[in-house]
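Notes, p. 3: input format for complexes.
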Amino acid sequence: MSKSRARVHYLSYMRALERAEEHHLSVTGRTVRPFDMAPVFQVPSASEPGRVHFVTWVAQDANGNGGSLLCDCIAAWRGAYCQHRAIVRQYLLSQHKMPA
Ligand SMILES: [Zn+2]
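Output follows (100 residues plus zinc ion):
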């Protein structure tokens, strides 16, 4: 990733995290994707009460670093850095792990 692209990426994350914190989102559960054991985190929807989004952490290294987070929500599908992904990234950073 180029330096300017990395900066845009970081700002997208910070904006998404701000919105997630306004909505008091947090990681409420954890599971794994059965076929490759990739970690999957559950985050409630900010707009639809009772709905949960699943954020999958793909292709991390053996120490659990790197890789990227994929969310199943419509914002992520449109290419945005969504609130769910941001809250999972913050959660992983608090555990000293480093996804994109
Ligand atoms: Zn999402």
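The chain has a mean pLDDT of 91.
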